[in-house]
Amino acid sequence: MRQKAVSLLQELTEAHSVSGHEDEVRAIFVDEMEGCGNLSTDKNGSVFCETDAPGPRVLIAGHMDEVGFMVQSITLDGFISFVAVGGWWEHNLLAQRVEVLTRSGEKIHGVVASKPPHQLTAAQRSQVMTIDQLFIDIGATSRREAQEVFGVSLGDPIAPWSPFTPMKQKDWFMAKAFDNRVGMAGAIQAGQILTQSTYPNRLIFGGTVQEEVGLRGAKTAANYIKPDVAIVLEGPPADDTPGMSHADSQGRLGGGVQIRMFDPSAIMNPRLAHLAIDTARKEGISHQIAMRRAGGTDAGSFHLANEGVPSIVLGVPARYIHSHNAIIDLKDYECMVNLAVALAKKLDQTTVDELTRYL
């Protein structure tokens, strides 16, 4: 599983799939899940692989999209103004490389332009520039060249450019978009493992669209799939770096899979959360429990769908998400996949019924 995980994570993180333009990740999912079940999509582009076994409908899914940008306008001298897609802190942007995906499918490299310190006043050096003050240099010398020669159009998606990189620390990797390509890799690998074994339910593996812009894809995905339980796989922010309390850390690299109990978007079904924790303990899977003060995941949409869907979030803590370079520990990823598989095998009809038996 380890060698496959590394190659899959590289392929997924290096894919260009900004919210609303998830085609490359969807294609990887379809290729990997061929033969594991029936493939389909909803009308927003979320993708699913559904088995034909009887029992409760158990969804294991990540979101396919990554934070990025879109072309807002092109200046007369060929520079690109852009809008953010998803949450960005402007400090992370200056001098970073990006790829513009044109309608023809070509990827144009560029850089978020920055002035050298020699050309800044003392006040400007301490200022955080807003996105509407920034621009991307793709090497075009005019608007006409950018559009007619380079093929750039208004609305083209722009993704960070950052190659998948093994680090000196064993099992640590650096790349863009671990939020949430770890979840997509996990959904794929959990699917490949589970469909080669026995399980007491009808499993659906999936990838949703547009999570980074308001959990949008999960809304239509839930209506389309109608799950009885949702296991959401994620790449949440780690909290083990300088300036954070290590004593209170709930997302430490090497600490195992993160089991989220709460965030502002969803209070997880307590019975399902406790089942996940108990399963991790019984299976000897390293884990850490999270209560998040901020943020949200697709569970925020899934748990409110239809008549209500018991949901849980399993995550791989990643340092520096929503930037060009995040870091994960592969062992945490393996713990997430192992727990997703073990938890899915426990969700028979009786267990699922008990999750929502209130009378």
UniProtKB/TrEMBL annotation:
Its cofactor is a divalent metal cation. Binds 2 divalent metal cations per subunit. Zn(2+) 2 binds at D179, E212, H322. InterPro entries: Peptidase_M42, Peptidase_M42_aminopept, Peptidase_M42_dom2. It comes from the Bacteria. The active site is at E211. This is M42 family metallopeptidase. It comes from Luteolibacter pohnpeiensis. The lineage of its organism: Bacteria, Pseudomonadati, Verrucomicrobiota, Verrucomicrobiia, Verrucomicrobiales.
